[in-house]
Structures are given as structure tokens and as C-alpha cells.
Design goal:
The protein has 874 residues and is of the alpha/beta class. It contains 35 helices and 33 strands. Bound molecules: adenosine-5'-diphosphate and magnesium ion (MG) (2 copies). GO terms for molecular function: ATP binding; kinase activity; metal ion binding; pyruvate, phosphate dikinase activity.
Amino acid sequence: KKYVYSFREGNAQMRNLLGGKGANLAEMVKIGLPVPMGFTITTEACLNYYEEGEKISEDILSQIFQALDDLEKEMGKKLGDNEDPLLVSVRSGAVISMPGMMDTILNLGLNDESVKGLAAKTGNERFAYDSYRRFIQMFGDVVMEVEHDKFESIINEVKQKKGITQDTEMDADGWKEVIELYKEKIKDETGRKFPQDPKEQLLMAVEAVFKSWNNQRAKVYRRINKIPDDLGTAVNVQTMVFGNKGDDSGTGVAFTRNPSTGEKEVYGEFLMNAQGEDVVAGIRTPQSIKQLKDIMPDVYEQFINVCKLLEKHYRDMQDIEFTIENGKLFMLQTRSGKRTAQAAVKIAVDMVKEGLINKDEAILRVPAGQVETLLHRRIDPNADVKPIAKGLPASPGAASGHVVFDPDEAEAMGNEGQRVILVRTETTPDDIHGIVAAQGVLTSRGGMTSHAAVVARGMGKPCVSGCEAVKIDYEKGEFTVGQLVVKKGDVISIDGSTGEVMIGEVPMIDPELSDEFNKILSWADEIRKLKVRANADTPHDAKVALEFGAEGIGLCRTEHMFMAQDRLPIVQQMIMAETKEEREEALAKLLPIQQEDFEGIFEVMEGLPVTVRLLDPPLHEFLPNPEELIVEIMELKAKGCSKELQAKQEMLKKVRALREMNPMLGLRGCRLGLLYPEIYVMQVKAILKAACNLTKKGIKVIPEIEIPLVNHELELKTLREIVEKTAEEVFEEEGTKVHYFIGTMIELPRACLTAEEIANFADFFSFGTNDLTQTTFGFSRDDAEGKILPHYVEQKILSDSPFIVLDRKGVGSLMKMATDKGRSVKPDLLIGICGEHGGEPSSVEFCHMIGLDFVSCSPFRVPIARLAAAQAKI
Ligand code: ADP
Ligand code: MG
Ligand code: MG
């Protein structure tokens, strides 16, 4: 089996075998770009390494040495040669890019002898020893597992002794001193000597890359991003080029378009006289790529042309890494660039205009799950905000939260539901869990491509980076900006679109859809088959939903109307009623109020269907909680107010009488309607009176009356008769008729199993997948989400919470069965979904697959559903 490929042998399609980096290096060689030559050890070799009990097999070893031999011949140099050494980098490259997750080693092949050869050959002693100390440092850290900080403190020691502050000021002798101390440190820490044999160095490095596949931060990254654990990583061995050779050398990273806004401009950063990670590590704040134009106009022009070529070739925005050695440009990496949702949308629309991609491709380029970030709130442009500092606008959006310096603490506070802003000098991959938990990230160092910025953009979190005015003191738990002291726990706000940092909360506004986003959505609308409705309970929500493109209301929950402050007492009076007459008296008071609610909503949704669900929750939800009541009763007793006391005591009795062991499985949904029909009668009256009133005004209304929690066909049959009878009465009274529908929510397994019977009495079905998930799994949603499901996901029993991503196998089978059974009786039965899943992309795709007519979700998720529905169709 072939385990090693020269860059000349591969191409971009071989990603699974060569990893993303290796495949794209080969592709760049193929299209004639300047890439330092090398070879790739495949992901299969990595898997083989683990199969063999963490050992590189003989076969693979000999293939590696053969490839090295070929490379040496091509370059006319030998690895680590004493006179003129070939030096290489050893780079990991997973199939799915995992930025900063795996470790790279540069300048491999240097040792106490070859460093002299390099110095003599290049006539640049400082460069040679700088390269050597970097190599020992990386090798020591990645391969021999000596903490990075230990090396940094040695450098600082030597710098201090020499009275300098910048690495660039260190001379060859300085580095020599550092090197000796490094080697001693490695010996002290590991009991082993730093290896001098170049081939031994190479094999140790390759093995370390294999091992890094299973290091802690790689595992965490894979878990967060749902990347399988059994892909393995490839290893790239590549001839070194040097950005640290002096002032006509440098290294940088760039995006072919702005990854934050999508603007069509090459966007990046570089450092002169620097190597590798210097740019992204945030140790020195880099220069903008535009400045390269002034420093080296020729290289700049060549670079811009390479960017254009790569975009044309890959037909996508690229994220590239490059190095300039003595004025000559080399490409070291290219891949599809990570981008914000905003940028994804703009780039997709622009590329259609430029003729690079078609509309279908454009729709697929925008991750539906990510566009939610476009719908985030931002700082009110009319508000009077006073920034205390300004950094780089590294990831757009605004956030407020309590200042936290420690990622563990951020995680703990985030889990408690607190809003925090993680403030660090710079971040490393070990801080990821803290970024996940935070609302936003603020760093005092690092550029737009620093780790914090890249990760935050990937997660759609606001980030301000390189905010140098912010001076952090971790020990004291505070940061200062000039005279101002901000302590841990204080609230700050950041605006990742402008880079501004503010004290306290600032006023934010609701998002609007950009022209580009509307364009993509209009393309999506042309394609999709699923209709998209919204869940809305008020005219305001209905308006928002319409603005976001909803084609109806799939769920209007009437209980929210019962909860309002001025209504609750009447609702309580209704519940406390001893007799039917008393209850009807209270209901009569509610009727005009509900009617007004419906009129408002119907009017907004003119001409579009509105599903109104009759009362669903258990009645005790409308009564005070017993502990509070008891406290009030004690107080009243002490004061001696007997009248009020009696009322409260009655209330307590009722609360206790209504108490259920499992309220979610208790007296709720259609069961309420069967036990207290007068409640549903009132609601139906309110709905249809509202409809009649508007019809008289010439406003078209399409009411769909929905009966919740039906289990048995006869429940629905009984209630349908009541609704129909009430409707006739209303139409008689109003002297007009409105066309309306009666349907049911399908949210219990039995309803799915007997859907062909239930369908006889239903004009439409709407899956209530929150309850259906709850009852199918037997998980109480309120408890399981916090206490059980995170462990299930952690242990990979479930890949996601089934309350977030629809469980296709279980709940989904029931849905499919109910859909098929229902349509076997009524081929054109209208079927939709109104659970939270209606706005989650993977669930929307499933709904498309089983042939539903519509999904319904919260107003802000309507654009997501429109996009996801189109993606499901493509
Ligand atoms: P990551 O996946 O973390 O970006 P890379 O393997 O891309 O790691 O290496 C990081 C950086 O190291 C590159 O961006 C480049 O600057 C530098 N580098 C890697 N290989 C070489 C090489 N052969 N010559 C010069 N620099 C290199
Ligand atoms: Mg890289
Ligand atoms: Mg329900």
C-alpha cells in the first residue's frame, strides 16, 4: 500500500487520504504556484500507527525514507547536512481543518553542526541560530513535552541580561546562549538529550504529529465541531523557506476576501523578519497586507495575482499562508476560508454576480445554522455610547457581560446562565471552552487572524482583538485603561463590528436583513417546496414574522394571552369557580379580550393561514405557587385581615387539589377541553367572532383551530362536534360565515400510531415535536435538558440533544408513520411541524424528506428555515 505521496502526485480531490493541507499543497504545485517541495504521509499511515499499538510500521518507515531520498535529490541537499543542510517542516494536516489544534515543527534537521553550515552558507549567523533555537523550542514543546512557557522564560532571562526587549534585537551570541540553556532545560525536564541525528528528529516529529491527533485540545475541538474521531491526520514534510532571513523576508496569512464582512479585498497580515506562528500567536502585532504594497511592490502584486488565481481555481474565498524569503514569494497553505455568516452571504451573492458559482451553489455556501448570528442584536446606532478603548473589529456583533479573565471560570459562570465576556491578553487553543461559554471575547494582543479572532468568528461570537489600551493584571483580577480600573465581575460591552469597548450595558437593537441576505433568501424561496410559517402569539411577533418572510402562523399559543397581568385574575376566577355558571361568568369576561387579541393577529396576517391552538397547559400554571401562598397566608393571619385571608386559603385549597404528580402528562391539552368544554367554547367563539368581524371589513382571514394533545380519535371527534356547533351559533349571531379548519397537534406516540383514525376528524396535522420528543423518549424536557442530555452527548450515546436536533430514527419514524397513515385516508391532508425543531436546519431537512407541507418556528428563525428548506431541496 502506498503510504507516502510526493506533492507532485496528489491533488485537491485526495483530501481524505492526504488531509486538507497536503491535498491543497499538491493542488497548488499542480497549478504552478511557488510551493516549497515536499511529501505527505497519509491519514491511513496515522490509523495504521494506532492499529500497530502506536508504532510506525517497517513498510511505512521505508516509504518515508524513500520519499526523503527523492526530496534530497531534487533539492540537491541532504537533511541536516553539516555543510549545507536541507531543513524541513513537519506539519499535521487533518481531513477537516482544525486550525491551531495540531502542532507544527519548523527548521527540522538543525543540530550543533548543521547550524554552523547554515550560518556559513547563508552568511547570516543570527538567522541560523534564531532558526535553531526556534526548532529546539518547537521540538521540545511538541515532541518532548516541555512546557512552552519554560522556553519563553529562558528567552526573557537572556533578554533582560542583555538589556533588550524585542526578540528581533537579539544577536547570534544571544541565541547561542539561549540554545545552550534550552538544551539543558530539556535534559533536566525529560532526562533525555535533545536528539542530534536529523533522521531521528524526523521520525520523532512524525510520531508526535500522529499522537497529536489524540491530544486534549484536538479532542475538544472535534467534540465541539462534531468531527469524527477516526479520521486520523496526515503529516506533511516540506522543505523550509525562511521568513526570518532579514528585512526582505517575512511571513503572513491572508484571506482573498474580508472574512468578517465579505468585502472583496485581499485581507491579511504579515510580519517582516519573522517565522511561522509569529503572526498568529499574537506575540507581535502584525502589519496589514496593504502595507506590503509600500515595502515590496513587486511581491505585493505577485501576491494579489496568486490570490485571484486561487479564487478562480477553487471558486471560493481562500485562507492562505505565505512566506517571503529574500524577496521571493512562497505559498505554504490554502484552504476555503472560515467566515462569518455575514461574509458568507456577501461572498456567495458576489460570486454569483461574478459568474464564479450558480444560485444553487450560493445557497449551499451559506450555513443555515450560522445565519442565526446575522439575526443577533447590535448596538443601537442612535445610542450615546462612550467607548473607553478601541481594538480590532475581529468578529462582528455586540455583547455585554461580566468581565472574566479565566477560561475555566468563564465556563463555570456560563453554565450557570451568566453572561460573561472573556478578557485575555491573547488566547490559545486551551481556552476554547471559555470562549464557548462567553458572550464575547476581548484580547489586548493579536491581530485579526489571531487565535481568538478565528475561533470567535467560527462560533459567531463577537470579538475585539489587539486592544492594546487594555492592560490586564491577572493576579489582581482587573484590567486598566489609562486611569480607569475594571474589575473581574464588572459589566462591559464590546462591539466586534467596530472594535469598541464600553463600560456597562449599552442599548441594543433588533437585527434587520441585509440586501444580500434578502437576495439569497429570495433565491431560496424560488427553490424550496416547504412553506415556512412562524410561531407567534401577538400582533407584534406576527409583524416581525412577516418581515422575515413567514407565510402564515403555524402556532399561536393562547395561554400566553391568559398570562398577561390584567387577565390573570379573571383566569384565576375561572379556575376557582365552583359551578359551571360561575365559570361561564368569568369566561364571558375573557371572551372580548381574547377576541381582540385574535383580531389583531388576523389583521396582520391578512390572507394567510393562522393556526390557533386551544388552551394547552395544566391549569395550576395559572395559579400562584403553594409555598408563596403559605407565606402570604401567615402574613395575613398576623395582620388579621380575615376576608383576604379566606380568599387565599381557598386558593391554596384549589392549588393543592389541582396538583399533579406529572403535570405534563396530566390534565392538559384536549383533556381540559373535554372536562371543561366551556373553556374551548369561549375560545372558539373569540376566534370566529374575530374572523367574522374582519371579514365584514373586507379582510380575508384563514383560521385554523387546533386541538392539542390528542391521543384517540374519539377525543377529536367529540371536540370537533363542539367546535362545529359553536361555529354555527357564532355565524348565526354574526350573520356571516367564515371558512375555517379544524385540526390537531400530533404530539403523542399513540396519535402517530393511529393517525389514519385521527385523520378522519382532522383537516390538518401539526407535529408538536417538543412533546412528541418528550413522550417518545420518556425524557422530561425541563429536567433532562440540563441534567441528563449533556452527559448523553458527552458519552456519545446521542450526538445531539433530541430537543434541539430532531431524532430522525425514533421521533422521526413516528412522524413519517403518522404522515403516511394520515395521507392514506386524506391524500391532501395539510401537515406541518410547529415544535422548536421547525427552525433547526437538520430537522427542516428531515421534514422536507418526509413530505411535510410546512415548518413553523420562532419569527427570528424564519430566515434560517427558508434557507434550510431550499438546501434540503437542492
Ligand atoms: P497550522 O495548521 O497550525 O496553521 P501549519 O502547518 O500551517 O500549521 O504551519 C504553521 C506555519 O508554519 C505556516 O503558516 C508557516 O508560516 C510555517 N511553515 C510551515 N511549513 C513551513 C515551511 N516549509 N517553510 C516555512 N514556513 C513554514
Ligand atoms: Mg496553517
Ligand atoms: Mg405540546
